[in-house]
Amino acid sequence: MTTPKPKIQFWYEFASTYSYLAAMRIEPLAAAAGVAVEWKPFLLGPIFHAQGWDTSPFNLYPAKGRYMARDLERLAAERGLAFALPEPFPQNSLLAARLALVGAEEGWIAPFTRAVFTAEFADGAQIADRGVLASLLEGLRLDASQLLPRIDQPQIKERLKQQTAEAQQLGIFGAPSFVSGGELFWGDDRLEQALAWANR
Amino acid sequence: MTTPKPKIQFWYEFASTYSYLAAMRIEPLAAAAGVAVEWKPFLLGPIFHAQGWDTSPFNLYPAKGRYMARDLERLAAERGLAFALPEPFPQNSLLAARLALVGAEEGWIAPFTRAVFTAEFADGAQIADRGVLASLLEGLRLDASQLLPRIDQPQIKERLKQQTAEAQQLGIFGAPSFVSGGELFWGDDRLEQALAWANR
Could A67 and B193 be called an inter-chain contact, meaning their C-beta atoms sit closer than 8 Å? Predict the structure, then answer.
C-alpha cells in the first residue's frame, strides 16, 4: 500500500495581487514539501458584496490600498517578479476564471493561471479582453478558437458559481486562501504554514 | 566615528491580537539584527472610526474574525505562547496605552507592554481595570501607587492623542505596524522584512 500524497487546495481570484504572488511560487514549494496542489479559482466579488462592499477593500480604504501597492512592489522585487498595479484595479476576472475552469478539466489550469497573472500584473494587459485571453492560450500552444467559446457555456458559468459558493461555505473571505488538513489559511504569507500543515 | 545603530518603530495597539504576537518576539529578533526598537503604542479606535468602523473589523466581518482566532491559536502554539481571545473583544486599551507612555518616559515600556499583552491574551485579565494595571506594575517591581495616577494627567492624555494622530499621518491603518528605513510594514508577518529593511 502506498500512502496518498497530501493535498492542498489553492483558492485564488484573478484580480487579486496577493494571489499573483502565491500562484508564481506555489508549485516549487509544494513539490519540495511533497504536497499536491488543487487549483481553485473563484470570484471574490460576490463574497465582498455579501459583506456590503461594492469594490476591493483596497479601493474602499485608500490607506490600505496605498500600502498594498508598496508591499507588493517590495515582495515582487525580492522574488524577482515584475509588478505594476493594473488600470483599472481591480480587473474584471470573470472570463479568466471561467476559462481556468476549462483548463481544470483539460489539465492546463496551472500554466494558464500563471500566464493570466503575468499578463495582468507584469505586462499591463487587460484580462477581461477576449483577445488577450486568446493570445494567452496560444502562448501555451492551445487552440484558442476551440477553447475560448467555452467561456459562454452554461455548464462552465454554473461551475464558477458553484465554486464561489463553495469558497464562501468554507469561510473564505479573501484571496489567496489555502485549505490544508481541514483548516483554512489566508494570505500568500501563510503558504509555507499551510504546506507544513498538509504533512502533519 | 561610530555608525548609529539602525532603528525600527514598533507601532502597536494593546487590544490587537497580532500586536501581542509581535511584542513577544520583537526584542530578540531586533537584537539579532542589530536594530534598536522604539515602542510606539497608539489607539486604533480613532483610525477605524475615521473609516466608518465602530468596532474591530474582526467583529464587523465574522468570517474574518473566526479565521483570526484560529490563525492566532496556530501561530501562538508554534511559538510556545498561550492564547485565548479575551471577553469582551476588543478590550478597552485606553488606560494601558496611557500607562505605557509613562513607561516610555521612565524606561520600562518594553517589559510593561509584554506584561499587559500576556495578562490580556494568556491570562484572561481585563486590561481596562486599574487594579489589573496596578498589579502588572507591581509585578515589575514598580511603585503602582505613584505611577497609576499619572494615567489621568492631561499631558499623558494629550501625548496619546498626538501619537495616534502621528500614526494616522504615517498611513497606519492596522496593528502592528513597523516604520523602518522610511517605509511602512504592516503585520506581525512583516517583522523580519522590516528588520532587514532597517539594515539596507
Answer: no
Instruction: Nearest chain B residue to A64 by CA: give it.
Output: B173
Task: Please give the C-alpha separations between residue B40 and each of A16, A86, B9, B91, B114, in angstroms, as whole numbers.
Answer: 32, 35, 7, 18, 13
C-alpha grid cell, residue A154: 452554461
A184 touches chain B (CB under 8 A): yes
For residue range B164-173, list pLDDT tens digits in order: 999 999 999 9
Pairing of strands B183-186, A7-12: unpaired
Q: Which domains does chain A have, with CATH numbers?
A: 7-198 (3.40.30.10)
- Pair A100, A113: CB distance under 8 Å: yes
Per-residue pLDDT of B138-150, as tens digits, reads 999 999 999 999 9
Of the CA atoms within 13 Å of residue A155, those in its CB half-sphere come to 3
Q: pLDDT over 70 for what percent of chain B?
A: 99
Q: By CA distance, what is A51's nearest residue in B?
A: B61
Amino acid letter, residue B141: R
Q: Which of A61, A79, A169, A197 to mutate to test the interface with B (most CBs of B within 10 A)?
A: A61
Query: Cβ of A61 and B71 within 8 Å?
Result: no
Residues of chain B with pLDDT under 70: 1
Residue written as grid cell 510606539: B40
| pTM as predicted | 0.95
C-alpha to C-alpha distance for B101 and B119, rounded to whole angstroms: 18
The answer for residues whose C-beta is within 8 angstroms of residue A127's C-beta and 6 or more apart is: A14, A91, A92, A93, A95, A96, A116, A119, A120, A133
Residue in B171, B189, B193 closest to A63 by CB: B171
**Which residues have C-beta within 8 Å of that of residue B44, sequence separation ≥ 6?**
B13, B15, B16, B174, B175
ipTM reported for the complex, 2 dp: 0.92
Detail the DSSP E strand segments found in chain B: 7-12, 36-41, 177-180, 183-186
List the one residue out of A71, A93, A108 whose CA is nearest residue A160: A93
Residue A40 is inside which H or E element, if any?
strand A36-41
